[in-house]
Specification:
α7 links the parallel β6 and β7. The longest helix has 20 residues. The radius of gyration is 25 Å and the shape is elongated. α2 runs antiparallel to α11, α4 runs parallel beside α6 and α8 packs parallel to α9. The chain has 16 helices and 18 strands.
Length: 464
């Protein structure tokens, strides 16, 4: 049996690019649990926001590599490395189109100069990162001798992976097979050879089989992209014909289809919305019994489709103990708690306690105490309402005011003990930072959502 691997490009798709911060993190977590070789990210565009996302992904993607595209200049390579260097398995991806038209239009380079740039970028990446991939963009429409020269330039500069990209998606299986055989002669046996098969003709899976039979080591996939091969298609292939093709892969083929539905719901959900669980069980069905132990909680969370690491499980357990108050939780309530407690940035501020006085004959006041790295800080303010007073008390503590872009509260369930799901969006530096909070006390939910957003700002600034 010959081992092969799958790398995923879901987070490069338009649906993922427009998703909210929290949804991208959750999508990456789900992808990482599939046994993929790598989860790929696009080139940094909005430097501050993308850096914050990448830092968070570094602790989220653990099993496979976290790969970041570098851009077309050496400073771009350095910025990509700053973003990904904290990952468990960092990878830098140097991508260059190989057709003369795209080199002129995208890179403003003539073909000979592009070869020099490929070597320069790859060498810069290799000096920073041991794992460097070179992607031959649009290779199926390029002149083959030039494409092979580009591959040689990248390997000579240190690339240990080469990807052949059929961007047009118009190739036939036999054409892909011939290209892979030529590339294999060039890269040798010590370089990983990967193929991204376009699906414009609906033949991506056939091209993938042809590529693997011709000697490719890896296939690129993406969910939610009709022009790409999906991991679900590869899983079906491996399940049905993997033994016949003498191929083995660490891809978790039993989980792939479920993940497809979860990612579809996740990446098409509105930012800030609680993402639905893909399950046949009703949302008001019991999920966690009162006084459940840690093992029962872990099993209940896994039944929702979530696999949390030790830190996130500890955060979820703390939140469940705080919010359940010894009562049974249904599926919607448990998932809302998990989404609000797990996969967050390291907190600068933690809520210790709050006391709110409000009524129709007094001015609402709030006394809030936060913990900032072991130091207790308190604020006392009056406001137009109890939530406004609480937010003003927090601002008094941090000594900063942030414009509130949005504030929403919704009930997770419809009983008298319903949990409140709060969304706070704070605007800072031209960007919006969203935070979520969950509690049976809507004021508590609002405070936790505000702190969630504030901690994201503090994590990026490192100065708040």
């Amino acid at each position: 049996m010959r081992p092969i691997s799958i790398s995923d490009q879901t987070l490069l798709t338009p649906a993922a690019r427009s998703a909210a911060f929290r949804q991208k993190l959750e999508a990456a977590r789900k992808l990482d649990h599939l046994g993929l070789n790598a989860v790929e990210m696009p080139k940094l565009s909005d430097q501050e926001a993308d850096m914050l996302l990448m830092r968070s992904l570094c602790s989220t993607v653990k099993r496979g590599a976290l790969a970041c595209q570098t851009g077309l200049t050496v400073p771009d390579v350095q910025r990509a490395w700053e973003a990904v260097k904290g990952a468990y398995h960092p990878r830098l991806i140097v991508t260059m189109p190989l057709t003369a038209a795209q080199l002129e239009y995208i890179c403003h380079l003539k073909p000979p100069k592009a070869l020099e740039r490929i070597g320069e970028l790859t060498a810069a990446a290799k000096a920073l990162c041991e794992d460097v991939e070179f992607v031959c963009g649009d290779i199926t429409r390029a002149e083959l001798p030039y494409a092979l020269d580009a591959i040689k330039a990248a390997i000579g500069a240190g690339a240990n992976r080469v990807t052949l990209e059929d961007a047009a998606g118009l190739s036939l299986p036999e054409e892909i097979a011939a290209l892979v055989k030529e590339a294999r002669k060039t890269v040798g046996e010590n370089v990983i050879l990967s193929v991204r098969c376009g699906n414009d003709l609906g033949m991506a899976i056939s091209c993938a089989v042809a590529a693997l039979q011709a000697g490719a080591d890896e296939i690129k996939t993406a969910y939610n992209d009709e022009n790409s091969l999906s991991a679900a298609q590869m899983a079906r292939l491996l399940r049905a014909r993997g033994a016949d093709l003498q191929l083995e892969c660490p891809l978790d083929i039993t989980r792939v289809d479920r993940t497809a539905g979860e990612l579809d719901a996740l990446l098409t959900a509105a930012p800030g919305k609680v993402m639905p669980v893909v399950s046949s069980a009703p949302q008001d069905a019991p999920a966690l019994a009162a006084e459940a132990n840690a093992e029962a909680l872990s099993q209940a969370i896994r039944s929702l489709g979530y696999e949390l690491d030790e830190d996130d499980m500890a955060h979820a357990r703390e939140a469940v103990e705080r919010e359940s108050r010894g009562r049974e939780l249904n599926r919607a309530e448990l998932e809302a708690i998990v989404l609000s407690a797990a996969q967050q940035v390291p907190p600068t501020y933690r809520l210790k306690n709050y006391l709110v006085n409000s009524g129709n004959t007094i001015t609402p006041t709030a006394h809030v105490t936060l913990d900032k790295r072991g130091e207790a800080l308190s604020g006392l303010c009056a406001g137009d309402g109890p939530i406004d007073a609480a937010f003003l008390a927090i601002e008094q503590i941090i000594g900063r005011h942030y414009e509130m872009d949005d504030f929403q509260i919704a009930a997770v369930t419809q009983n008298r003990e319903a949990m409140g799901d709060a969304l706070v969006k704070l605007r800072h530096g031209g960007k919006v930072f969203a935070g979520k909070g969950i509690s049976t006390d809507i004021i508590g939910a609002a405070i936790r959502a505000y702190l969630n957003a504030l901690n994201k700002i503090a994590y990026e600034e490192k100065t708040v």
